[in-house]
Specification:
Number of helices: 42
Structural class: alpha/beta
Number of strands: 20
Strand content: 5-15%
Strand order of the largest sheet: 1-2-3-4-5-6
Shape: globular
Largest sheet: 6 strands, mixed
Length: 1020
């Protein structure tokens, strides 16, 4: 059986296969994919269905100068171990072929099956069969196939020869699709995999009979040779290998002689905490908490885990790789804080260790680490080097054919044109969880299109059959496995990226094998923080140590109170900005609370929190005893940790029991809720509380369990939010420069950031070939535009300019020298035009029109002085080549200059056409920036440049238009209904300036204007 886990080499899904096999009263079934993909789910499903699962693998083996396919079964546990190694070895080799020598080395414990339909191309097949029989002895079988019940041409000769050599024969069938009617869909799946289009050959492909036969078909196909069927049964029954149950395989940290991992962890944790307290005495509360955590960690056998994580965190710090302050529940561990794994003091913020590691519910610790995403791989490389390349791997993940993907892929194989592909794509809604079935129910267009043509209907039927199949493999975004011994002893591996292996099994299967995975996450916002830090340092500012940023900085809180949080991690959305304005944060914990509350559900408590904080509403406590727990959140339960503490204080639960209660309650199982209520109330009565208080508080816990957010995660991520806010408040130029560099290619985002920075009085300098780099940089208290932000300027060109700047800077001061230095190969007119229009050559002090007209002369000059002639540019004139002169032409008009600037950069940088026009329009009362704060129904008057005009017809057949109008502060969509449109339709020209009056309304949260009056002529 080849299953669909074998990436488009089969369409047999387990959920269809199992009922079919049960129906046929199947006794045994072998999986023989080309890698060990899908092995665990297959074995589990077979076990549940009470069918004997046989572990097999299809491979290509090198035989002299040819390769041949062979199926290997794991007959014993040794054989299973060898299959892990064979699958890994084949997947790591470029040609994915197993050398004969390696087959000899891994043969023990395996059973080999050579199929009669696989030796057609092998001329000396007798020698091959003899060699296999000698290698595997009585564990080698010759398989006779009769796909669809049809005997093959070579069967008689093959059977006669094998019987003469006493080589056992078995009846076999390779299954690639479940039933005969699935053949066409299977062929299309192969087409998706190979990139082939559907041709006549595919309809008569030779794999038509390779489906899964029914019991009756199986018997009838080999009715003349029942002994082969019996041999097949015996062969499969003789394979006893199983996937072994594995205990946790904790990686081992290398400890000095005389130490154990436990003793070393205790030493390092206390030393680290002393360092946190600047070598002063550790306060008692901290000492007791650290001792308590260490006892639990060591008793659970997790000392090595913490040492490994602390070690690669130390590597990151030593190599100036910025790491996050923490993530998830691990921020609740004082051991993690002491070892500098996290940067959040759990005692300062009341974070609980039991939320991370619960002694009453044994589970592996799960410490996720955020790294600068551009340097994350360096840390993984270090780990592989330290613990052995064979012991470390990233985790595989599989992409499936979603509704949109399968629709397009099948259409491509069917040979549909690009327009049809686009049409199909548009007919399937862009929303999560959409299926073809749902798309068909929702889309009348799709229904109509399918009824147009039988081929369209057939496309849909095939796409439906293939939807959801695994399509490709990739590397998991974060998961890394570290094992105490080579991974191939437990899981199959394959080639990965940059010298790191990848597992052949996904996350769930890896964990089921007892392997320990750690999450190395790349966080883009850390990269941005890192860029900001370097920018500040390079422009003469301090080197920012993020751990030492003052957490009560007035300027930072003022920025947060205004909701000035564009570009700040987690605080960017309009809703979050409003929440900050309402809450008016004055303490770091306010940011933590808003980060935890700003989610569907608990969001409704933001106004309550804000009113109570401002003293406009009384703080009501469910019970006075809960005051210390709920005081910081003004009586609102915000965090899971508060629920745990309430259960501990009120019902006398241990922290471990309380965490179990939190987990149970959040699952909303009625029976569990009732059981837990009884326990909770009894506990509260023992503590001396009234029954009604206990019941009321329990109901409160049930209500808030879903809303409760892990405080440890909220605190850790709020640290990044605060750090970014601090940099924005104190170093705005570096803040915006880093954000703009990361927004390259996103014109809307760049425009928004540039405008915001300009509003704060930060000057912007146009791009310059002399001063700009690939990134936005801080210069003279302002920001210099980057070269990579100019349309049509390739990275190779920017690299060449950087080289020239270092080796031969004087050539940048003359267009002709620049052309020679770059050579005609890189001095491309289109690229130079873009640079001139963007203002990147303004420093030459020549008008842009002059520069544009001189490009051809410079190019000819470069061709004349080709670098191959070894002529030094500076001495070129000595050879009487002379230097041509710039062309003499009229200056470029300001309007034309701005239009070209916008084409090159995506927006106007040196000036905006609207700015100059404002003085002519005395009654303008709004800009795009102010629209955001105005109420619906406000009558507005504004001017802007026409960016885009979309004309449509109403149901009555009248013409109207939607116009995108842009000013210095952004753009807005304005609607011109037929009665207005008919008077101004000839005036709607791109880049023209338009004055409008109309009513403001919001659509999908965005301002729009219903226009009552339009003018495009100047009014003095």
């Amino acid at each position: 059986m080849h299953t669909s886990a074998d990436l488009l080499k089969s369409t047999i899904r387990l959920e269809q296969l199992i009922p079919f096999l049960q129906e046929q009263k199947t006794q045994a079934c072998a999986i023989v994919n080309t890698k060990l993909y899908g092995l665990l789910p297959f074995c589990k499903a077979m076990q549940q269905a009470n069918i004997h699962a046989v572990i097999g693998l299809s491979i290509n083996v090198q035989w002299h100068d040819k390769t041949f396919p062979l199926v290997l079964y794991a007959q014993s546990q040794d054989g299973y171990q060898h299959l892990l190694k064979i699958s890994s070895a084949v997947s790591i080799r470029e040609d994915e072929v197993l050398p004969w020598k390696w087959l000899e080395g891994y043969a023990a414990g395996c059973l080999a099956l050579l199929s009669s339909d696989d030796i057609g191309d092998v001329e000396d097949w007798q020698a091959l069969v003899t060699a296999l029989a000698q290698l595997f002895q009585h564990h080698f079988y010759m398989g006779i196939t009769r796909p669809g019940g049809v005997a093959q041409a070579n069967e008689k000769e093959l059977v006669g020869w094998c019987e003469g050599q006493t080589i056992p024969l078995v009846a076999v069938q390779s299954c690639y699709f479940l039933r005969p009617e699935d053949h066409f869909a299977y062929e299309v799946a192969r087409g998706i995999d190979t990139g082939d289009k559907l041709g006549d050959t595919m309809l008569t492909a030779n794999l038509q009979g390779y489906y899964s036969p029914t019991a009756q078909e199986w018997q009838s196909w080999f009715a003349d040779r029942p002994e082969w069927l019996e041999s097949c049964r015996q062969m499969l029954a003789s394979c006893h290998a199983i996937i072994p149950e594995m205990s946790v395989q904790m990686p081992k940290f290398p400890v000095p002689v005389g130490d154990t991992s436990e003793s070393l962890l205790v030493k390092e944790a206390f030393a680290g905490l002393e360092e946190r307290f600047n070598q002063m005495d550790i306060p008692n509360g901290y000492r007791e908490r650290l001792q308590y955590e260490l006892e639990i960690i060591c008793s659970m056998g997790f000392a090595d885990y913490f040492l490994v994580v602390a070690d690669f965190m130390r590597f990151a710090k030593d190599n100036r790789i910025l790491t996050g302050p923490g993530r998830g529940s691990s921020a609740g561990s004082l051991v993690a804080y002491s070892l500098a794994i996290t940067q959040v003091d759990p005692l300062v913020y009341g974070l609980l260790f039991e939320r991370f590691l619960n002694p009453e519910r044994i589970s592996l610790p799960d410490i996720d680490i955020d790294f600068v995403d551009s340097k994350r791989h360096q840390v993984i490389q270090y780990v592989a080097q330290k613990y052995g390349k064979a012991n470390v791997a990233q985790i595989i993940t599989f992409g499936t054919l979603s509704a949109k993907a399968v629709a397009r892929d099948v259409a491509r194989v069917f040979g549909f044109g690009a327009e049809t592909l686009e049409k199909i794509s548009k007919m399937i809604p862009n929303k999560p969880g959409i299926t073809l079935q749902k798309a068909l129910e929702e889309s009348y267009d799709l229904q109509g299109w399918l009824s147009e043509d039988d081929q369209h209907q057939r496309w849909y039927e095939v796409a439906l059959k293939l939807e959801g199949l695994p399509r490709n493999s990739s590397t998991h975004a974060a998961g890394v496995v570290i094992a105490p011994s080579p991974l191939v002893n437990t899981v199959p591996i394959e080639d990965g990226h940059e010298g790191i292996y990848c597992t052949q099994w996904p996350m769930g299967d890896i964990e089921a094998c007892g392997l320990v995975k750690m999450d190395f996450l790349g966080l883009r916002n850390l990269t941005i923080l890192e860029q900001m830090r370097w920018s500040i340092y390079k422009t003469g500012g301090p080197w920012i140590d993020f751990e030492r940023i003052p957490m009560h900085d007035e300027k930072t809180f003022q920025l947060l109170q205004k909701g000035d949080t564009s570009g700040i991690f987690q605080l960017e959305s309009e809703g979050m900005k409003q929440a900050l304005r309402d809450i008016h944060p004055t303490h770091f914990l306010d940011i933590v609370a808003v980060n935890a509350l700003y989610r569907p559900g608990p969001m409704e408590f933001i106004p309550v929190y804000a009113r109570r904080k401002a003293g406009k509403e009384m703080v009501v406590m469910p019970h006075p005893v809960l005051e210390p727990i709920l005081q910081e959140t003004f009586g609102v339960i915000v965090y899971q940790e508060q629920i745990i503490k309430i259960a501990s204080v009120l019902a006398g639960f241990s922290m471990g029991q309380a965490d179990l209660l939190r987990r149970a309650v959040s699952k909303k199982n009625r029976q569990v809720l009732e059981e837990q209520q009884v326990t909770f109330v009894q506990g509260a009565l023992k503590q001396g509380y009234d029954q009604h208080v206990a019941t009321d508080v329990y109901e409160l816990i049930v209500r808030f369990a879903d809303y409760g957010f892990p405080k440890s995660h909220a605190v850790a991520y709020s640290v990044i939010s605060y750090q970014m806010a601090y940099l924005k408040a104190h170093f705005p130029q570096s803040f915006y420069a880093a954000l703009l560099s990361n927004a390259t290619g996103n014109i809307d985002k760049i425009q928004q950031l540039v405008q915001e920075a300009k509003d704060k009085g930060i000057p912007f300098y146009p791009p310059s070939l002399k001063d700009s780099t690939k990134y936005f940089t801080v210069q003279q208290e302002g920001i210099r535009y980057s070269l990579s932000g100019i349309k049509g300027v390739p990275h190779t060109f920017i690299e060449n300019i950087n080289t020239l700047r270092q080796t031969n800077p004087q050539v940048l001061h003359n267009l002709f020298d620049l052309a020679v230095a770059l050579s005609a190969q890189h001095f491309k007119p289109k690229v130079i035009e873009s640079l001139i229009y963007a203002g990147a050559l303004d420093y030459l002090e020549k008008d842009r029109a002059v520069l544009i007209m001189t490009i051809d002369a410079a190019l000819k000059h470069a061709e004349l002085l080709r670098p191959t002639e070894d002529i030094d540019i500076s001495t070129a004139t000595a050879f009487n080549f002379g230097k041509p002169k710039y062309m003499q032409v009229d200056d470029m008009p300001q309007k034309e200059k701005l239009i070209h600037e916008k084409e090159s950069l995506g927006f106007y940088i040196s000036a905006h056409p609207v700015t100059q026009e404002r003085s002519y329009w005395a009654d303008v009362n709004s800009t795009c920036r102010e629209l955001k704060q105005m109420r619906d129904g406000t009558y507005v008057k504004m001017i802007g440049v026409i960016e885009d005009v979309k004309k449509i017809r109403t149901k009555k057949g009248e013409q109207m238009a939607f116009v995108q109008l842009q000013d210095e502060h952004g753009s807005v969509s304005v609607t011109l209904f037929p009665q207005v449109y008919q008077f101004v339709q000839d005036l709607l020209i791109d880049d023209e300036i338009m004055f409008i009056e109309g009513t403001l309304e919001r659509r999908f949260g965005k301002p729009q204007i219903k226009v009552k009056h339009v003018q495009t002529t100047k009014k003095v």
